[in-house]
Amino acid sequence: HEEVQQLLDVLAKNAPKLVEDLVPKTLSIGIVLKVLQNLLEERIPVKDMRTIAETLAEAGARSQEPGALTAAVRVSLGRSIVQHINGMGPELQVITLDPSLEQILQTSIQAISEGGAGIEPGLAERMHQSLAESTQRQESAGQPSILLVTPAIRAWLARLVRHSIPMLQVLAYNEIPDNKQIKVVANIGTDVPSLGAQPGNAAA
After folding, report:
1. Across the chain, which distance is largest between two alpha carbons, in Å?
2. Does the keyword Glycosyltransferase apply (predicted)?
3. Domain 2-76 class in CATH
C-alpha cells in the first residue's frame, strides 16, 4: 500500500482534487492497489498515474470490481499499451480467434463463474497449441505476438497463457487506437491446430 500511496501523493501535488475524489471517496486504496498489480502482471507501465486515476474515478462510480476497473484503465491506456508492445508503426500484426471459438470461450467462462464445467479439455489443448505455434512464427519473424479478442474473454485468456506462452500479449479490440491498421496473420478455429492465414497472406 505504501508504494501506491507514494504514487498518489506525487499525483496529488499536481491534481489534488483528482486524488481526493478517488481515494477514499470512490475506491479504497486496496482496490487501487489490485488494479495496479493487475496491470503490472501483464507488463503494463503504470507511470501515467493521472490517466489511471481519472479512469478509476469515473469507472469506480459504476463498479468496485478490480477486473472491470482494470479493463477500463486498459482501454484508457490503449495507445501507450500498443506503443509499448509494437512501437510507433502504423500496422499491427495480430492473431485472432474464430468467432465460433470466441463464443464457446465466452459461454465456458460464464459457466465457470456460475459453478459449472469449463472449456472442454481437448479444445483448450488444441487452442493452446495453435497459439504457441503462431507465437513462435511471429517471434521467428521478429514481430511481437499479439492475440486480439473480444473484451469479455481478454482477461481470462491472458491468465491462461501468461506463464505457458509468456511472449504472447492478449489485447481487446477496444484497446486498439483508431489509427492502427490491423493485419491478421493467423486465425485460430475450433478444430485444427493451425487454422487460418499464414504470415504475408493475411487480409487486413
Report:
1. 55
2. no
3. mainly alpha
